[in-house]
Design a protein that fits this description.
- The protein has 14 helices and no strands.
- It has 313 residues and is mainly alpha-helical.
- Helix 5 runs antiparallel to helix 6, helix 5 crosses helix 12 and helix 9 runs antiparallel to helix 12.
- It is globular, with a radius of gyration of 24 Å.
- The chain starts with a helix and ends in a 6-residue tail after the last helix.
């Protein structure tokens, strides 16, 4: 198993290298002169030249890339061109809302999705199955921002059960913190629930048709142990796979969700940076998001070895 983990760790190196090249070239592939765009329409040639020097755009491309990679290797993601603060500091200031939203969405989405997916497989062909699959198709089809605005209109503006927007740090109390995350977690997790529920149902149906499941029923094993202990465990590999893949949905959805619900997280930081063409922030956050996604998929690969011991060989 140790050899398997080492191989998977080594496989992440070329992936991050390729991501790093594309993120670095983002500044150079963007239409127009980045220095002129940042300086504005009324800037003089001296202003544009000063910005090019500050960004290092006057140096050879290879030298720029080497300096950028060396800085990232030492934990330096650059300095914001507008606030003059390190990108790492800005990300850390916004990290708690984003992490809170991501964790609560994962917990809610995975719990609901696996539950209704197992239920749909157990009641395959019935009204329950059709309702669950209809919900899954609807949830995967409706954009996150539409769901967010609908939830705000119903639960915040009409019923006044939950706050419209904002974020309360967990240090100010568990319930105020959770109360502000209910609506954004539901909005962000709906597509995630739909995806996992469909995969759970399909994987469970395949396992429930196996001979050992019929044998367990013939021996008098209760339905719940058969579903959870025998079927779900053996159907877990595709489910864990789609949970890992779905992190990409969360990463992209966080940006939209934080904008809709006015949550001061990393997603809002990216939106503001794009609006102001603050390239160091954009590049730094993209590298962080890519690293998180690669790390999650590495964890998924390691979980495989516990679900199916054959994989480690």
């Amino acid at each position: 198993m140790i050899a398997y983990v080492i191989r998977r760790l080594l496989a992440t190196i070329p992936v991050m290298a390729i991501v790093g090249v594309f993120v670095f070239l983002l500044l150079h592939l963007a239409p127009g002169d980045p220095a002129a765009i940042i300086a504005g329409d009324n800037a003089t040639e001296q202003n544009i030249a000063a910005i090019r020097t500050r960004l290092g755009l006057d140096r050879p491309l290879i030298e720029q890339f080497g300096s950028w990679v060396w800085a990232i290797a030492h934990g330096d993601l650059g300095v914001s061109m507008f606030s003059n603060l390190p990108v790492t500091t800005l990300v850390l200031q916004r990290a708690q809302p984003t992490i809170s939203l991501t964790v609560t969405t994962l917990l809610v989405a995975v719990t609901i999705a696996i539950t209704i997916g197992v239920l749909a497989a157990w009641k395959a062909g019935t009204l329950v199955d059709r309702v669950v699959m209809g919900f899954a198709v609807l949830g995967f089809s409706v954009p996150v921002f539409v769901v967010g605005y609908l939830l705000v209109y119903v639960f915040a503006l009409q019923l006044r059960w939950l706050p419209v927007q904002g974020y309360v740090p967990i240090e100010q109390g568990l319930w105020p913190w959770a109360r502000n995350l209910i609506l954004p977690s539901l909005a962000l997790g709906l597509a995630y629930v739909a995806l996992i529920a469909r995969i759970t149902r399909a994987s469970m149906l395949e396992v429930l048709a196996e001979d050992y499941i019929r044998t367990a029923h013939a021996k008098g094993v209760a339905t719940v142990p058969v579903l959870l202990r025998h079927a779900l465990k053996n159907a877990a590999v595709p489910i864990v796979t789609v949970i890992g893949i779905g992190v990409a949905l969360l990463i992209s959805g966080v940006v939209i969700t934080e904008s809709v619900f006015n949550i001061p997280g990393v997603g809002r930081l990216v939106v503001d940076a794009i609006a102001r063409r603050d390239y160091p922030i954009i590049q730094g956050v993209m590298i962080l998001f890519a690293g998180v996604y690669v790390l999650v998929n590495l964890c998924v690969d390691i979980v495989y070895t516990f679900l199916d011991p054959r994989i480690r060989y």
